[in-house]
Every structure is written in structure tokens, then in C-alpha cells.
Write a structure and sequence with these properties.
Elements (H helix, E strand, L loop, with lengths): L6 E5 L3 H12 L3 E5 L3 H20 L5 H9 L1 E4 L10 E4 L5 H11 L8 E4 L6 H5 L8 E6 L8 E6 L5 H13 L3 E5 L7 H17 L5 H11 L6 H8 L1 H15 L8 H8 L12 E2 L6 E2 L2
Parallel strand pairs: 1-2, 1-4, 2-3, 4-5, 5-6, 7-8
Antiparallel strand pairs: 6-7, 9-10
The protein binds nicotinamide-adenine-dinucleotide.
Nicotinamide-adenine-dinucleotide (NAD) binds next to helix 1, helix 4 and strand 6.
EC number: 1.1.1.157
GO molecular function, one term: 3-hydroxybutyryl-CoA dehydrogenase activity
Protein name: 3-hydroxybutyryl-CoA dehydrogenase
Length: 293
């Protein structure tokens, strides 16, 4: 019932956009990737090439396959280059105004049948769909980080999303070898509704002096069997993204239990966004990460 996706456009070449491009091209799809910042686009392509090289060195991908996958990825400067796509996935910064502006300039250049998706971690799919000219062909396709490693993809339907769009998205995720789950369109969906308040609580624990960065991360790794400590994970996700998700939860559910920790706000205001800026709860500028508090 769904349509087969062969050409995928990606807007935003940060950690998520580049990861999505990497897995799509490896699955045989043609990929067109855009970023408003040429340096971020170049970095994104570089991290895709490193990703393929890592897979080849581990014996998880043939060298010839990695070369063909790389050749299927085209960098584009303007949204006009996305016109031939069957599906365009927006993976830009977690900010509603940014995403709305993207959809406003994107839709006029697309063919009428092109599906549009957002990789938002938290923002209402129905509200974002309303910024497009095709709410029935709009859907949330929420990949997890790092995309090449994580098995899950959350699919979120907006109020107007048609069955065909949902089925096409499900088929697309299957083609990538990943598992789709369905979430209702509520703030932060399933994974981040549960995960981000836990991370925010870890930051409160640090803020109130209950433990140091190292104690909190070690406690959750060894005491709750988490593969990564919550502060390490926050740095990995990006503190700007964490704050944005907490704000969506706080405003969307109108419950004070989702209040973003003031220390998280302070780190974001300092531009300490985690790994991507080389400083967050840890400092990544040396050989080994060092706690910043
Ligand atoms: N980081 C995570 O763990 C994670 C996990 C799942 C989903 N997400 C979601 O994926 C999206 C991207 O997150 P990220 O971690 O890759 O962020 P990032 O900061 O690494 O990358 C965002 C990219 O978007 C680009 N961008 C911003 N405005 C743009 C525009 N108008 N046109 C084109 N490009 C634009 C930026 O230049 C940047 O390169 C967000 O919606 C985020 O919530 C993130």
C-alpha cells in the first residue's frame, strides 16, 4: 500500500543528518544532503566517509560497497536540488521556528507526491505538518543516535497523516534494516518522554551537589547497568537538544516536573553543548574526557 522510497533528501548534516545519509546510501538509496552551513555540510560528509571506513576496517562492509554507497550521496547547496526526492527528511536544529522556516521554503520546490518527514526529538508532528502544504504526506521519522548503530526508529503520525504515508515510511525503515515503533503525537513521543527527564534529573543531582559528574555517571553505569552515564549521554545527544526537548515537555504538558534544570540552561548559554562543541559536562579537548565540574 505504501510507495517505494528510492531517493531521499536530508536537510541538516549534523550528527543525525549525516548518520541518516550514511545508512540510506548503504541501503542502496540515492541521497541528497543539504546544510545551511557549508562547513557543517563538509564535516557531515567527512563523518560519513569515516563511518564507512570504520565499517570496512571491522569487516562489516565490503570496500566496493562503501565506495558505491559514498557515490550515491550528493551534497546540495539549495533546496531546489531536493526536487527529485520521494522523501525529504528534515534533521536540522531542534527549534520549531527553524523547522517551520525550512518547510515554508522547501515545499514549493517539491513535486506534489514527495513525502516530507521530520526527525524532531520532541516537537508536535501535527503542528509542524501545518507549516507544510501536505500534512497528509507528512510524518515524524525519529532516528536514534548514533543512527548507524541504533536499531529503533519511532514513527509518529500527525492528525492528518494518511495510511499510505505511514506504510511508505514503515517500508523505508524496513529497507534500512531497522525496527519501527509507532508513537502517538505527544510531546517527546516515547523514548525522549522517558529518557530526557532522567537526564534532566541527573543534572539536578549535579546542580544540588548530591554527586560529582563522575559519581553520577559511575552510579548509573554500575548501579543501574546503563551503558553510558546520563551526563555522558547528555553530552552525546547535545545539551541544546536536551534543553529544547525539556522545554517542549514543560510547555506541552504544563507540568513543573519537566522544568529544565538551571544548570542545563547555563551550559547551553555558555555554548558548552557537549561533544559537538568539545565541552559540556566533560571537556573533550584533550586525549581523554575530563569532567568540567
Ligand atoms: N542528537 C541526538 O541524539 C538526536 C537524536 C534523535 C533526533 N535528534 C533530532 O535531530 C535533529 C538534528 O539534531 P542533531 O543532533 O543532528 O543536531 P546538530 O546540531 O548536530 O545538527 C543540526 C544541523 O542543522 C543545520 N541547520 C540548521 N538550520 C538549518 C537550515 N535552515 N537549513 C539547513 N540546515 C540547517 C545546522 O547547520 C546543523 O549542521 C534535531 O531535531 C534533534 O532533536 C537528535
Amino acid at each position: 500500500m505504501g510507495i517505494e522510497i528510492k531517493r531521499v533528501g536530508i536537510i541538516g548534516a549534523g550528527q543525525m543528518g549525516s548518520g541518516i545519509a550514511q545508512v540510506c546510501a548503504a541501503a542502496g538509496l540515492d541521497v541528497f544532503i543539504n546544510d545551511r552551513d557549508p562547513a557543517r555540510l563538509a564535516n557531515g560528509i567527512d563523518s560519513i566517509e569515516k563511518g564507512y571506513a570504520r565499517l570496512v576496517s571491522k569487516g562489516a562492509m565490503e570496500e566496493t560497497d562503501s565506495r558505491s554507497a559514498r557515490e550515491r550521496i550528493t551534497s546540495i547547496d539549495t533546496f531546489a536540488g531536493l526536487a527529485p526526492c520521494d522523501l525529504v527528511i528534515e534533521a536540522a536544529t531542534e527549534n520549531e521556528a527553524t523547522k517551520r522556516d525550512i518547510f515554508t521554503s522547501l515545499c514549493p520546490v517539491l513535486g506534489p507526491d514527495t513525502m516530507v518527514a521530520t526527525n524532531t526529538s520532541s516537537i508536535s508532528i501535527t503542528r509542524l505538518a501545518a507549516a507544510t502544504d501536505r500534512p497528509e504526506r507528512f510524518i515524524g521519522i525519529h532516528f536514534m543516535n548514533p543512527v548507524p548503530v541504533m536499531q529503533l526508529v519511532e514513527l509518529i503520525r500527525g492528525i492528518a497523516t494518511e495510511d499510505q504515508t505511514y506504510e511508505s515510511a514503515k517500508g523505508f525503515i524496513g529497507k534500512l534494516g531497522k525496527t519501527a515503533t509507532m508513537s502517538e503525537d505527544f510531546p517527546a513521543f516515547i523514548v525522549n518522554r522517558i529518557l530526557l527527564p532522567m537526564i534532566n534529573e541527573a543534572i539536578y543531582t549535579l546542580y544540588e551537589g548530591v554527586g560529582s559528574v563522575e559519581s553520577i555517571d559511575t552510579a548509573m553505569k554500575l548501579g543501574a547497568n546503563h551503558p553510558m552515564g546520563p551526563l555522558q549521554l547528555a553530552d552525546f545527544i547535545g545539551l541544546d537538544t536536551c534543553l529544547s526537548v525539556m522545554q517542549v515537555l514543560y510547555e506541552g504538558l504544563a507540568d513543573s516536573k519537566y522544568r529544565p534544570c538551571p544548570l542545563l540552561v547555563k551550559y547551553v548559554e555558555a555554548g558548552w553543548l557537549g561533544r559537538k562543541t568539545k565541552r559540556g559536562f566533560y571537556d573533550y579537548r584533550g586525549v581523554n574526557p575530563v569532567p568540567t565540574r
